[in-house]
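hey so i finally got around to running both of the ones u sent me last week. sorry it took forever, my laptop kept dying halfway thru and i had to restart like 3 times lol. anyway pasting them below in the order u listed, first the sequence line then the structure token line for each. didnt double check formatting much so if smth looks off just lmk and ill redo it

first one:
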Amino acid sequence: MNLYAKLLERENQGKPVRVGLIGAGKFAAMYLAQVPRTPGIRLVAIADLAPANARTNLGRVGWSVGEIAGTLVIEDWQKIVSNPEIDIVIEATGNPIAAVEHILGAFRHGKHVVNVTVEADAFCGPILAQKAKEAGVVYSLAYGDQPALICDLVDWARAAGFPVVAAGRGHKWLPHFAQSTPETVWGYYGLTPEQAKIGGLNPKMFNSFLDGSKPAIETSAVCNATGLTPAPEGLLYPAGSVDEIPSLMRPRSEGGQLHHKGQVEVISSLQRDGTPIDYDIRFGVWVVFEGESEYIRRCFSEYGVKTDPSGRYACMYKRWHLIGLEVGISVASVGLRGESTGCATGWRADAVATAKKDLKPGELLDGEGGYTVVGRLMSAEASLAQACLPLGLAHGWKVLRAVAAGQPLRWSDVAFDTEVPAVRLRREMEKAASSGSEAARYGLPRRAAG
């Protein structure tokens, strides 16, 4: 690990990695807090729909008056992606439909992209990765967010010679959370609506984590980047402490809860009766790997590695993630090494929009964390076969026919705009999946004829 040494070298050479930022909300503000403390990095410009708010955020996270004055803050994102002084664009709007347009624009201008808006990656990451390759640039998930951290752990295990049995993240989960809405969310977090309002907390965003939408989105991105796949039932959220993960994440035939080896999963920090679990992985990430030989398993024992009772399955983990405070790892990796910190290598999973309630014709979908839909992790093959609508595009469209609660929405269930770039790109990816040559090109599952 020598990213810091390389950053110092670029600082001493007067050749910093030059960054442009689109979106200056909470995630981006956390990264901005680190920029003045990181050698070899120069933030050239910020684009945000509210430039005054972006400048306020710079002051709030500790930038000096002079540093703020010396940074271009504008509203027009196209001036970021076309700026010849920018090497890397960080997309941090959190708006997946807009993010796709921003990312494609950056590719057209030869810019590398660190994509914070994982919702966009979840529904078209494989084709974004291919477009980046065609443009000769790097496309990367954002380190600090859980998907990139999971990718890092999976890569560590495989590079060390361990087969990866399962990987994923933690979550505070009970089954009835899937029906939570922005109206009910604060009770589950132990807050009153008044406290949440004073804190400036967004109920829809927080609800997207609680109801399982965000876990579905993030594990979809992980599958597409690592080759792991979901269970047929989607995410099951088994409950357990960190020390119990090796026992939980082994095949069912061996006493665990995995449908298959090479699976993605989310571990709950709550027992089914709501009891909090001690030493949980709620805010962290983990990978379970296998000691294939007697010698390796003996090494696990000799060095105090916590395993399942057989001694075969072990776990490496991080109990926390620092979100935007860690994005600099992606910036340095992309800018100095030309390497992503997670990028789709194929289409293996999808976060599908599922009716949160009985939907009637004429209703408008309100996207993740809202009142109408919730995310469900499915295999790409199942999503394609059923022509499912991805969660990241389930916002603002009118429902055309009744959809029962718990059922996935299909493209034919909604009136969508075919001219939206994000829709066009997703439909292009789906079309490629029906062609043998194109499916191989994009690493997609080929849909059987008929």
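and the second one:
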Amino acid sequence: MKKIFLILFFILLTNEVSASIKENIIYNLKNVENITFKFEQNINGKAENGECIIQYPKKIFCKYNLKNKKILVSNGKSLVIKSLSSYYLYPLDKTPLNLILDKNFLINKIINSDGRIIENKFINYRFSEEDNEINIFFDKNTYEFIGWQILDIYQNLSITFISSIIKNQKLKKNLFKIPKQN
């Protein structure tokens, strides 16, 4: 009888810790209006890095550390990827970033998903939406959003890790203005 009680106790304790982690992740997300961070992105084996700012809902500005001065900007409706030699404009709702940049969507998905612990360091939630499979990652100890894995608009595997996170800063008004074509 003691053995059964101990097993049930550990099962309940494990579920409670899992629920607590989920609650802390949701609490963190609810209290974030914007985040500034450094990123490293790997698309099909090609690594790029830089700095980004996300303002919820659905706005992002990223400046890549590349000679071609690549930037990525979303104003909440459109997404532009611009460099010295190219300019691409997409409707945001046709990209997986539309979902990642919507914290209410993420919170609802987390509420209705079971996360998994990876290497006792990371919490991962995986879900599919609108033909997109999305993996989002959180730090197990700080409950901070630390990255995502998606198939990009060209069906390339894109993995983004974020670090040096600063939350809820005062942002420039025109930061998310769509740049004009060269």
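quick thing i noticed on the 2nd:
The CA atoms of residues 99 and 166 lie 21 Å apart.
anyway thats it, ttyl
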